Amino acid sequence: EQQYMLKSFEVDLYPGDRFLVTKLQHVAYMGNTGHSFGPHLHFEIRHTHGQVPINPLHFGYEIPDKVSPVIQNLVIYEYDELGQLLNTRLYQPKWKSSGVYALPQTVQIEAAKVSFGIRSYDTQDGSTNQNGIYSINCKADDEPSFAFSLDEIPFEQTRYMNAHIDYKLKINENLFTHRCYALEGNKLPIYYTGSDQGRFEINREHAREFTFSVADFEGNISQLTFEVLKGPGLAPLAMPPQKYQAIGNPDEVTILNQPGIQVAWPEGSFYEKIPLSITTTPKLKGESFSPYFELTPLDIPVHTYFDIAIDGINVPVDKQSKAFIARCEPNGSVINCGGTWIGNNLTTGVRQMSTYAIMVDTIAPKVTPVSFGLVMTNWQKMTFRISDNFRVRDKGQDLFFEGYVDGEWILLELDGKSGLLAHHFDGRIKSGVHSLLIRVTDDRGNVGVLEKTFTL
User: Fold this and answer.
1) Long-range contacts of 145-149 (CB under 8 A, 24+ apart)
2) Per-residue pLDDT tens over the stretch 407-432
3) Which residues pair with 400 in a beta bridge?
4) First and final CA of the chain: distance in angstroms?
5) Which 3 state secondary structure label does DSSP give 9?
6) What is the pTM of this model?
7) How far is Cα of residue 350 from the mean position of the Cα atoms in its chain?
8) 299 membership: H or E segment, kind and range
């Protein structure tokens, strides 16, 4: 009723006490699993005030689990005296017995300071699923120094997980690692930090002993213990000179101007100090209407939308309404990030360091029948596939679709994973001959239309 009243497939409904349920009542079916954009069911427990999700295992669910987490890797980050990252090393701890891990020998480093990361997962009895761990606790020389536990994270802070993990390892090597120190711009409310803040001085006189305890919710713990010593006679590492055009600070606005482009990162965009640069490549005739601008480094996370303005003087007047800012992926794919004209500049907001240029889209979306017949008496539904030549992200708008039978709006359900549009015959369309119209509009206003006649 709400969908037809609002003429929209997507509806946020807060039913209050309209739909009363009883214990053991079957309330929903699930089936659209994975990275789902279609209809599916979430189970969550939240604080009533603020709607902050809470780890539901706090509420008495008894899930058999006597298995300790698996510690896959230890990451050691080395820093110079000024705190600049010099080197990252990956170690594979040796399993000694249930819940006990160690490194085969003392780690010798050249740097003045170190911090750590842990790559780990948990399993439960009778399941091989690799689940997330609950907490990590670090002790340095038997003194508590850093810890976190995953009890609750507000929705508006979930993107800070890009600061919690080692983003570069995730992007470049697909390794999910928990940082055991908090970056400057990380606002997650999950950490305990001692005086060392998770970064430790290392010297030649005494090896420092570190113990990491990785736990699941049931209290099963795996421990990794090792020593770190500054090696004798090793010359300190030197930070190689790095070319950059601006430094992005977590608590400052950063603006970078180059011929043909301006980029503005608002305060809070970065989690640590980042050297920023733009590399320009000439435009390709017939493909882009501006040079290609690569924002580097490519493998750092950006927390908020930042603004890009590209000079669009080369875009013909008759194509300006079809111009968009394109994100050009390393694999050759192009993503429409939207675009609004301000004077001669095309502007939009994005959230990823990448290569950007102005392109034009004049191609209409496609609507293709999948399950449709001239006579559909006793059919349960009719389906169609919709597609477009460019994917959209950031400020780009998804395909807008609408369907009409005999001029009356009908409900179309979109499965975002497959691009399938479905209309379920629910009795609103009566028996007889009918005319069907489906209209699909993309981000740049290109319209694809399907018109058919059918008998129900």
Assistant:
1) 145/193, 145/194, 145/195, 145/196, 145/198, 145/200, 146/180, 146/181, 146/191, 146/192, 146/193, 146/194, 146/196, 146/197, 146/198, 147/191, 147/192, 148/178, 148/188, 148/190, 148/191, 148/192, 149/190
2) 999 999 988 778 899 999 999 999 99
3) 441
4) 22
5) coil
6) 0.89
7) 13
8) none
Give 40's pLDDT tier (boundaries 50, 70, 90). Answer: low
Please, what sign has the CA dihedral across residues 439, 421, 400, 366? negative
pLDDT tens sequence across 296-316:
999 999 999 999 999 999 999
Are 310 and 345 spatial neighbours (Cβ–Cβ below 8 Å)? yes
Q: Which amino acid is at 429?
A: I
The token duo for 207 is 């090896």
Measured CA to CA in angstroms, residue 385 lies from 315, 333, 424 at distances of 32, 21, 15
Residues forming beta bridges with residue 53, ordered by sequence position: 46
Instruction: Report the C-alpha gap between 42 and 33 in whole angstroms.
Output: 11
> Alpha-carbon distance 269 to 300, whole Å?
11
Identify any residues that bridge with 137 across adjacent strands, giving them in sequence order: 147, 213
In terms of Cα–Cα distance, which of 109, 100, 99 is closest to 75?
109
